[in-house]
Amino acid sequence: MIELDPLRLSLSGGHPVTLDQIQTFLLVARLGGIRRATEALHLSQPAVSNRILTLEEELSVPLFERVGGGMALTREGHQLLPHAELIEQTVNRIRSELSPPEALRTVLRIGVVETVAECWLRDFLASLHRAYPQVVVEVTVDISVNLREQLLERSLDLVALMGPISDYAVENVALPSVEMHWFKSGGSAEPDLAKTPVITFHRKSRPFEEIRQKLIGLHGSGVRVFPSSALSTGMELVAVGVGVGAFPDLPDHAAVREGRVERFTPGWRPRPITLSACFLREGRGSLVEPAIALLQQVARARAGDDPGGA
């Protein structure tokens, strides 16, 4: 049985087990291979292989075995895994509790859907910068299905998407929902949804399928629903009269502010957009958790749930 005290990494009779070795072990285990771990660590393959080999020699047990084109944990590797995760979480919490926020230097990779980018991202990043001025933030805006994959591949640290994500490795934190509205070109006549194209979210999204099914139920299979992966582009298409739009409430969008699009009510509205902030369980105790708390605060303030603001 392998036993490691999170704060005492030296093994009797041997050299210290390093945090780098623990981190590398965890990445190889989570990503299923040396090659993907080298990409995540920005190291050469020999350097990563050497860390694993040194750790195995120190513990006197094999931790991985080759399976197909990847690496799988041995029985001893599975025994080490929870201890290594505890070490990782302990180190994260030490850094979080002892390092002043203004001195924390790291990179936080954030992915958001366009609804979040349009509604909350600006205020969230401003709050994050005030709290952690030395943190470098990398932002990706993409559709939910792609953000989910990037989180699970560990290309992103935190995602805000149409969630939650159903995966044992993921922690989900609820964000305020965003109301949906119908939009038409400014000053145009009341549209007939049986004849007018409807522009909305991308084809793989829940809102697209729900809106399509509702329109078919009301007006038959001849309805036309155009998917758009970019809300801003979709709103501009509505502004020039290509069709009507079913989009989140975006009061700060230029087309709305300038009156080039306006709301209308055909008698029903799509369901609100349900959003979640998601991160991997291994990120507990890291900067991800206070970042999500800031995002919740900003989102609630914008939604009117927290008059105190962020």
Automatic annotation (TrEMBL):
Pfam family, any one: LysR_substrate
SUPFAM superfamilies the record matches: Periplasmic binding protein-like II, Winged helix' DNA-binding domain
InterPro entries with a match to the protein in the record: LTTR, LysR_HTH_N, LysR_subst-bd, WH-like_DNA-bd_sf, WH_DNA-bd_sf
Keywords attached to this entry: DNA-binding, Transcription, Transcription regulation
Domain HTH lysR-type: 17-74
Example GO molecular function: DNA-binding transcription factor activity
Gene3D superfamilies noted in UniProt: Periplasmic binding protein-like II (3.40.190.10), Winged helix-like DNA-binding domain superfamily/Winged helix DNA-binding domain (1.10.10.10)
Presence of the UniProt keyword Transcription regulation in the record: yes
Keyword Ligase among UniProt keywords: no
Family the UniProt entry places it in: Belongs to the LysR transcriptional regulatory family.
The name this protein goes by in its record: LysR family transcriptional regulator
Species whose genome carries this gene: Pseudooceanicola albus
Taxon lineage: Bacteria, Pseudomonadati, Pseudomonadota, Alphaproteobacteria, Rhodobacterales
